[in-house]
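Annex B, item 7. Sequence and structure tokens for protein A, then protein B.
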Amino acid sequence: MTRRLVPARMGRLQWVWIVAAVTLLAPGLARAKAWRPELSASLGGTFGVRGTPNEGGPSASFSALWPVAERLSFGVMLHADDAGSLVDSLRNAQGHGLPYGKIEQLHRAAWGASWRLDARLPARFGLDPFVSATWGYYRIRDDIRGTKSSEAGSGGLSLAAIVRRSFGRRLSAGAGVRCHWLFNDLEDRFVSATLEGAWR
């Protein structure tokens, strides 16, 4: 069964963000060198999930960003975040636990695509700190041992603090913490902590 939990105004807001994206990208892409994006990937885990299940799980993302100002980059991010699994004992018709151990009763994960805006702060101690914000679409999917039980679409935003160190002219690596807020009644907040690398 599919449930749609996207606010009615999300469609209008998406158009606002599309116009803003074109406005931000146009000046940067007008320069030939700006056609080459900075590519970044992250891998880590989630915690602080508000919802059930809430044990957390793997987190991954991939982004392509173009410079739009001296310290600003804008682009898109694909993201996938696991909320964890609900594990419980097998039960009989009366609801009593059976002595056969525990089994996964529900698994939840969210994936989607978002606009991403990064602001690079002044370097300190050889490190490059960033502040990152996203706005986009999340698809929340519940399954029971691989069989889909329900899913819902949701708008969402995130804010992150990221620190990287450069290794040569093009490669950098570091870590970040990102807090996500989703506009639905299944999973409305979680945090991801990741290691990430970037190539420009």
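Protein B:
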Amino acid sequence: MSAVLQGGLHPQSWRLTASVCLGLAALVLVPALWTPVHVLLVAGAILVGTAVVFSVRRSLVALVLMTTALPAHLIDSTALPLGMRPEEILLAAAFVFAFMDLVHVRGLNFCRVRPDGLVYAFLFVASISMLVGFYHGNEPSVVLRNGRYAFYYAAFLLTVQAVDSRTAVRVFVPLFVVAGLAVSAEYILQFVAGTGSSVSGEFVRLGRRQGVFLPVSLLLLANVLLHDPKRWGRVLPFGLFLVMGVAFALTLGRGMWVSFALGLIASVWLREAGLPAWRRRMWRPVAIAVSLLVVLVGAILFFQRLTGAAISAHAVERSRTFVDYTRDVQVLGRILNYANALEAIAEHPILGNGQGTTLTSYSFDPDTGRFGTWTSWTVDSLYLTLWLKLGLAGLVVFPALCLGVLRRSRAAFMRATDPSTRAFTAAGVAIVLAMLVLGLSDGSMLNGRFALVFAILFGLLSRVAAEVLDGPAAPTTQPEGPT
């Protein structure tokens, strides 16, 4: 140390001050040589890195926010070594932190929960599917790009080790709500900027990928209102529910509407099922669900009146496809894509076609008004995707994992006495059920970066259920103070 001080690196040395200033200036000026977005990305990376270093819990918090709230174009604009994405680098760092904590702090005291065997099995099947993809001659870059999303479910194991029940309920439930509010703000702001309140009757459908997260946040809020109203009161959750509901309507996602409605029905049913038999009333769950939906529709109509856009007309028109699917050429194009997927599955029904499989289908382009062919690496169906890429093993193991989380969450809800824990586990049942239904027409649980969010959510639900049903598990990370 004395040699360093004598060499001119004393804290009061002008050389040290100048070096630090030059370094900070370079962090701003060098990214600015490309675009202002790069300045934001570098600055955000530095802030996130300093916030999460050596903390698995804070890394998971950052992962949820980065995956849900950060606009997709910012993530897509990053060019990292080996084609990695920001959330993947952060996930890898979190695993390093967890390994250090497991070895040096917890003495290899590993926490086990009931569904983790299915997670290991799914990761093994995903590994085999990548080998199958290489065997069938699929493009290596596409195999690696597609296969990465299945391995996001390793975050389940990370979450179970790092987060206890109290942290899951007190930290991650508000986090999911805040993330949903951020997504809602992006939807509403983009809608207002795209239509304008003076353009009466016009409507621009928003196709943001983050929309799949809105049912998750809405069902969390609904269950807080139903099972833990004293936590935040009734006014704040109800107001947030209406704001997110308006953004949810702007998605015009028919599958998400149906799945959310079923999740809401499951939530109010659990509320009655958790009451003593003499207090149960069959009419009350129906009344609660209908009341929430009526108020939500009223908020949407008020927003429509305020902006002048014909949201309800477009919603009704798209809903008519439930009765007559031939009214929508996009639905017909999706059905043709399903048929192509089944033909490909028929060629290799046992092991599947492996990761990197692509499908060429007909699709209608609303901008040109013409049909054309397009090649995609996925299918808008969770179950067809599993069968196509991971074979029968994937088609069995992944739904079994989801049902295992659902079953444990319901059992924890019936036994728990803490209102916040009951609200979270009930929301878990509703969310998993809703996503399984949505999986008929959407593959977000496996295709894309939102697989990481569902992996973390499944890990949180499994850890909470383990502590409620099996007693305190192995200690998590070393106490870090408030997250």
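Comment on protein B: The first strand starts at residue 359 and ends at 365.
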